[in-house]
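Researcher: Structure for this, please.
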Amino acid sequence: MLSTQELKTYAASLGLVATGVCAATANSQLKEQLKKRRASFPLCSFEAEDICNRIDPSKLMPNAKSVFVCLFPYYINEVTPGNLSRYAMVCDYHQVAGEYLAKLTAFIKEKEPNARCLPLCDTSPMVDRWFAYQAGLGFFGKNQMLIHPEFGSWFFIGSLLLDIPLEADAPLAVTCKNCDACIRSCPGGALKDDFGFDCEKCISYLTQKKALTESQKAVVHSQNSVYGCDVCQKVCPHNANVPNTTIAEFYQELIIKLDKNTIENMSNREFKKQYKNYAFSWCSRQTILKNFKD
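Model: Predicted structure, token format:
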């Protein structure tokens, strides 16, 4: 039978040094947190309305027993972003994580031929950060980010939902420093002291929306990013002295800045073709253009 340690050792051989396991069970604590947030703040349009679909892995795999979670750090110290969030400058994390998860799946199948493996990377209604938290890979900050002791919050999360049991890890006994730097620094005032979050004031969210109110446009145009926002991560003390990523793919074909004139002179098809390997390409050309200052 495949063991947790065997799988972690193989993952480490691929360069995935931050991995963990949690049980594939619905969590009442997460359910209450989601209900509390929805009672006070607008529902994000990217979020599934049915809370059960967000918290219960059995909705995706009826006999799910465990979740193997991997972190994909993407921070590169030597790179200074232009008008893109750091995560948008690197190759599309869906593609990169997907390739690693496919290798892990093949390894599992060698050991457990009948095992079912479902790869997840921001591709399901599930709360990926909660899987990682339960798997002992971080703690939650007031900036809504999961924070790893070594890699800070600069990472993507990929998981394998499995119908085989694996020994689970325990959540970390570490908490946010409660310095409130992220709350004070958020350009739109989206973060609240009780870990609350108003997505309609978050620049990262607003840059991905097709249409904005005049007040939201003013917030977006008050800063330089045309996709995403890193402010709450940059000011977080847990992100001090974060090492460079060890994922080779994230050093390839970095995009530091998008040019308004270039995008204006593209067709929609040309935009998708030019930027197909970057996470922001899922947005329409018009959505990106609205974020540039006049």
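Researcher: Any notable elements?
Model: Strands lie at 19-23, 66-73, 117-120, 139-140, 146-147, 155-162. The mean pLDDT is 96.
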